[in-house]
Each structure stands twice: as structure tokens, then as C-alpha cells.
Amino acid sequence: MCIRDSHYCGGSVRLLEHSQFYRSGRNYGGWPYLYACQDCDASVGIHPGTLIPLGTLASAELKDARKRNKQVFLLAQEILFNDDRGSAHRWLAHRMGIEVEACHWGGFDLEQCEQAGSICSRAVNDHRL
């Protein structure tokens, strides 16, 4: 089933099971589906029980940047906002100059990931001083 074209290479994006995409040949979690480009391997997970993507297609580089920088955000959320996710997202959106609705790691591009990670890292470091 072809869903749409990849914004990375223009290749066909298809709905696959994890076992068809990952080298391990295994499915992960209770909802083992994702969208993946057949040509460049960009992919995005899907909300359980739906066909709604968790964000945008991501290359391996972007997936790494999202994961790495989100960890810094989660630390800032814990230290600065007592684990209040909503307050942390509102703060980050304001600092990035974007709408709160757009402040979602699954939708960030590489530049936004690095910007968000830098903002969070500086805030955590300043707090610790």
C-alpha cells in the first residue's frame, strides 16, 4: 500500500510491519507498524491502533538528533518544571519562537532539534550554577 512520496528522495512510502523494515526481522511493541520509504529508509512510527504517523518521516541522522536532544529536554522538564510536560513544552515553544502546537519532537527537523537541545542544555546548565 503506497501512502505518499518521501520528502527525502521522492521514493514511495509504504505501510510496513517492523519485521519488514528492521534488520532484526522482529516486531516491537503492541502495534508493529510504521511508514517507511522504500528507497532511502526514512521512516516514522504510527500511533497504536491507528494509521496516524507519530510525526514526520525521519532519516537515521534526524532520528538520532531527535532522540539525543529530546533527552536533554526531558532533563530540563524534570529539573526546571518538576516533570510538568505542558509547562516545559510551552516554555520551549516560546524560546524557539514557535506555536505550542508545533513544539513536537516528532515534527522537528534537524535544525529545530539542535536549537531545542541547545536551549534546554543552556537552561539546565544555568540552573545548576
The beta-strand count equals 4
Unreliably modeled segments: none
Biggest pleated sheet:
4 strands, antiparallel
Order of helices and strands: EEHEEHHH
- Percent of residues in helical segments? 40-55%
Number of helices: 4
Strand content: 5-15%
Radius of gyration: 16 Å
Spatial strand order of the main sheet: 1-2-3-4
N-to-C span: 53 Å
- Net shape: elongated
- Structure class: alpha+beta
* Mean pLDDT over the full residue set: 92
Give structural notes:
With 129 residues, this protein is an alpha+beta fold. The chain is built from four helices and four strands. It has helices spanning 18-21, 60-81, 85-96, 110-128, and strands spanning 2-5, 12-17, 33-37, 43-45. Strands 1-2-3-4 form a four-stranded antiparallel sheet. It is elongated. The termini are far apart. The mean pLDDT is 92.
